[in-house]
Amino acid sequence: MEQKNKIYELQQKLKRYAKKGRWKYIDNFHITLKFLDEINVSQQKQIDNAMQSICFERNPFNLSLEGINAFTNKGCVRVLWLGLSGDIKELESLHYEVDKSLIPIGISPEKRKFRPHITIGQDIFFECDFTTIKDTSYSINFGITHINSIFLFKSEQIENKRIYSKVSKYIFQNKKED
């Protein structure tokens, strides 16, 4: 939760520069390994089995948050996000294994390149150019986050708010020996 609070703190600083936009709720900050769209109960059981199998073989790894970035379109910041550093190859490998394991369940692999990030806002119009905001010094030390599990989330629109709820947790079982 400490990391989410630091992300929230940064988000609040950035909001001051925005004329309008949609900002992610603190409980919705996450890294997406795979977007699944609609799944049924049978698929969920198969997904649970596949993820448990993947995580049984996985070692924990470390990530750090780094850099404010944006996907832009015609003066609008479509997605405002934080990049990642650390054991990125481990994260990319995990993404690849998740993508590959879902093919037999009928879920197609992602066509776009995996760009791990945490979205903090969408459809944002800033008062000044984004590069000016990006270059402004935000000295929040996010520190290192130890990654030892992944989750399956359910996304719902409740009272005009996007809510993500944890459905399943998969713990990395293969512990590195020091």
CATH class: Alpha Beta
Low-confidence stretches: none
Structural class: alpha+beta
Total of helices: 4
CATH superfamily: Cyclic phosphodiesterase
Under CATH, the topology can be stated as: Cyclic Phosphodiesterase, Chain: A
Task: Please report which band the strand proportion falls in: under 5%, 5-15%, 15-25%, 25-35%, 35-45% or over 45%.
Answer: 35-45%
Spatial ordering of strands, largest sheet: 1-4-3-2-5
CATH architecture: Alpha-Beta Complex
Strand runs, count? 7
Q: Into which percent range does the helicity of residues fall? A: 25-40%
When the domains are counted, the total is 1
Q: Characterize the overall form.
A: globular
Q: Whole-number average pLDDT?
A: 90
State the major sheet. 5 strands, antiparallel
| End-to-end separation | 27 Å
Elements, N to C (H/E): HEHEEHEHEEE
Radius of gyration: 17 Å
Word description of this protein:
With 178 residues, this protein is an alpha+beta fold. It has one domain (2-171): Alpha-Beta Complex (Cyclic Phosphodiesterase, Chain: A), CATH 3.90.1140.10. It has helices at 2-15, 41-56, 88-101, 130-135, and strands spanning 18-23, 61-73, 76-86, 118-126, 144-147, 149-158, 161-171. The chain has a 5-stranded antiparallel beta sheet with strand order 1-4-3-2-5, sandwiched between helices. A hairpin with a 2-residue loop joins strand 2 and strand 3.
Condensed summary:
With 178 residues, this protein is α+β, with helices and mostly antiparallel strands. It has helices at residues 2-15, 41-56, 88-101, 130-135; strands spanning 18-23, 61-73, 76-86, 118-126, 144-147, 149-158, 161-171.
